[in-house]
Write a structure and sequence with these properties.
The protein has 314 residues and is an alpha+beta fold. It is built from 8 helices and 12 strands.
Length: 314
């Protein structure tokens, strides 16, 4: 079960974006014939217009913006952050409605201005929406506690025996997203004028590490636990045997426990999370945890406990 979001929570996260989109499209439809073409959509110092977008393009872009934000919040929302979804919808929706209002009956879009009061008004709407989202949080039951880490027995090894364990694991969605980002990045860099080309650089920043972590090899041996890209020796994460306090197995939810996929950092724990399901969880001597989702995690944990115990007696 996804401990991050229930169907009710997802519906409550999507609701404010549906309301904002409805209000925006209604205002846009009622005043469409009174809007200049193009509209003033960006404002510089003093609130004067310095960027313009055609009416049809503005309709598509603004709709896609609200839908995209709504989809992201609906997918990633947690109970404690529901107010954030409502605040985001309120602020974005208010700015779009005010933008349409400022453009109404403008003979020349270059003369349109957007007063600073618009930001204040949008912030006030966001605050009201946030309060509504916070109140609605009580309709969502608290998330169940995180699954406990299951202890595993030591793997029996003779005094002179050596053993190792290795397994590769990957994430198809992460691979697809990384490849898509890398393929799109050069086209955006070459075809998009500055500063839009920054999106191409962002594609490289996301795609390269994403592809490196899309498939990893997990190894347990005399050096401890090592996690590295399946096709390269670096970068790698290593937990040496003298830092292993206890290894166990836990059923992880990628979104609920770590907020997504890839290399994840949370309070008192880190992880390489490529899917939901069985994970090797190592409690380190300093109290922090490291987790990696991998098949046959029980065998890996048993061997790691044995090797760490043996190392401590040397």
């Amino acid at each position: 079960m996804n401990r991050a979001a229930t169907p009710r929570l997802r519906a409550l996260a999507a609701l404010p974006f549906a309301l904002a989109l409805t209000a925006h499209l209604l205002v846009l439809a009622l005043g469409y014939d009174r809007l200049p073409d193009p509209l003033a959509t960006h404002f510089g110092g003093g609130g004067r217009a310095d960027g313009f977008t055609g009416r049809a393009a503005f309709t598509v872009i603004s709709t896609a913006l609200l839908l995209g934000l709504g989809a992201g919040w609906t997918l990633l929302v947690r109970r404690t952050a529901l107010w954030g979804a409502w605040a985001t919808a309120g602020f974005t929706g208010a700015l779009l409605v005010l933008l349409v209002r400022d453009n109404l009956d403008a003979g020349d879009a270059a003369l349109v201005s957007s007063p600073l009061a618009n930001l204040t008004l949008a912030a006030a709407v966001a605050a009201l929406f946030a309060a509504a989202g916070l109140a609605l949080t009580r309709l969502v039951p608290p998330a169940p506690a995180e699954a406990p880490t299951a202890s595993v027995p030591r793997l029996p090894l003779g005094a002179s025996e050596v053993a190792g364990w290795t397994r590769s694991t990957g994430s198809r969605p992460l691979t697809a997203l990384a490849v898509l980002a890398l393929v799109a990045a050069p086209a955006v860099l070459l075809l998009t004028p500055w500063p839009g080309a920054l999106l191409g650089l962002l594609g490289l920043v996301v795609g390269v590490p994403g592809l490196a972590l899309a498939r990893v090899r997990v190894t347990v041996d005399r050096r401890g636990l090592t996690v590295r890209p399946a096709l390269a020796a670096r970068p790698r994460i290593r937990v040496p045997l003298d830092e292993v306090a206890e290894a166990g197995v836990r059923d992880l939810d990628a979104m609920g426990d770590f907020g997504g996929w890839g290399y994840r950092v949370r309070a008192h724990r880190t992880g390489v999370v490529l899917r939901s399901g069985e994970a090797l969880v190592v409690r380190r001597s300093g109290g922090r945890e490291f987790a990696v989702t991998v098949p046959d995690a029980r065998t890996a944990a048993a061997l790691l406990n044995t090797l760490a115990e043996r190392h401590g007696k040397v």
